[in-house]
Write a sequence for this structure.
């Protein structure tokens, strides 16, 4: 659900763009500068907020900062007990002994993804490429499609984007909890396949000339009601199905590859399609995006991980774990001469 807040910013940005870029309100040479300035102000705000966000205790332990990790966990426990009016919390289930390794090399990351978890890597690539193509196909060509085929004035396009953004917000807010109750595999595969099928149907209706600006916006909002949940789950998936030490790099790695393969050339590709002024040629581009989404959904059916309700250590054993601890041990041992930490 957190990932969907990106679209809250998009909705506000679209609304402000409609005002700031209106020549009737601001001069042309001033409006776009104000728009960029607002972005910079928001960026500075994020830097300030980050100072009050506690570091991950898992990350701290993996890097040998045990006292800081213990302090963060203690603060969280105290807050939970205070808000829940509890005298004590349940005892942790099991222990895991680790030997902190510090920085993980790219070689270790590549070996982990390709050799140890090849099926999970295929899953990550499929999900990222599918959502990257679909989103870049629409977000970067949205205005061109509306101005070229629907004859919508440039000044009105941002207001259609607001409705589109709302669909992207409501989807994860409505379906997000089902990824923990119904299950990751079922929800990821279904959101990808449903959005792919609906995207193909919308493309066909567009090619037939049945849709106008309003109905196309409604159709896309419905498509991305599901697609936004699926795209959010792609980031969730690659962050939790690999060992703890590789989480940050896994997100960056799969995002970079997925965007490079599925998204980097998509705006240029659709720009060429739209220049033909043929709705059928544009439809074939939409159809390609639909196929990629459905294919990713099928991959999720076979290679998806049932990660709901499980700790990250149970989904993928940390690289720094000592010995074979695929199952939780009752007691965590210590190796002579090593400084161990116990994740509880």
């Amino acid at each position: 659900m957190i990932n969907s807040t990106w679209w809250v910013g998009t909705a506000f940005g679209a609304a402000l763009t409609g005002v700031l870029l209106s020549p009737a309100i601001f001069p042309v040479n001033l409006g776009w500068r104000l728009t960029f300035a607002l972005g910079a102000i928001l960026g500075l705000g994020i830097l300030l907020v980050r100072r009050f966000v506690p570091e991950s205790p898992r990350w701290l332990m993996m890097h040998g900062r045990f006292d800081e990790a213990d302090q963060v966990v203690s603060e969280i426990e105290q807050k939970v007990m205070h808000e829940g009016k509890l005298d004590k919390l349940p005892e942790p289930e099991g222990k895991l002994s680790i030997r902190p390794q510090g920085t993980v090399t790219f070689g270790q990351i590549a070996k982990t993804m390709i050799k140890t978890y090849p099926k999970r890597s295929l899953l990550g690539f499929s999900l990222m490429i599918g959502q990257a193509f679909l989103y870049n196909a629409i977000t970067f060509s949205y205005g061109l499609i509306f101005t070229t085929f629907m004859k919508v004035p440039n000044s009105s396009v941002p207001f259609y984007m607001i409705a589109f953004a709302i669909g992207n917000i409501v989807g994860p807010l409505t379906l997000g909890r089902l990824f923990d109750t119904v299950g990751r595999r079922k929800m990821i595969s279904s959101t990808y396949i449903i959005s792919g099928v609906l995207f193909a149907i919308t493309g066909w209706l567009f090619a037939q000339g049945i849709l106008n600006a309003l109905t196309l916006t409604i159709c896309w909002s419905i498509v991305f009601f599901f697609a936004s949940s699926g795209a959010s789950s792609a980031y969730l998936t690659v962050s939790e199905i690999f060992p703890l030490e590789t989480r940050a790099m896994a997100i960056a790695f799969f995002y970079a590859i997925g965007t490079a393969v599925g998204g980097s050339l998509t705006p240029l590709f659709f720009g060429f399609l739209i220049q033909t002024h043929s709705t059928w040629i544009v439809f074939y581009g939409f159809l390609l995006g639909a196929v990629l989404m459905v294919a990713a959904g099928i991959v999720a059916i076979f290679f998806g991980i049932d990660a709901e309700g499980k700790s990250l250590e149970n989904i993928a054993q940390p690289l720094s774990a000592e010995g074979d601890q695929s199952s939780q041990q009752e007691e965590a041992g210590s190796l002579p001469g090593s400084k161990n930490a116990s994740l509880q």
About this structure: The CA atoms of residues 36 and 229 lie 29 Å apart. The longest helix spans residues 213-240. The chain has a mean pLDDT of 85. The longest strand covers residues 96-98.
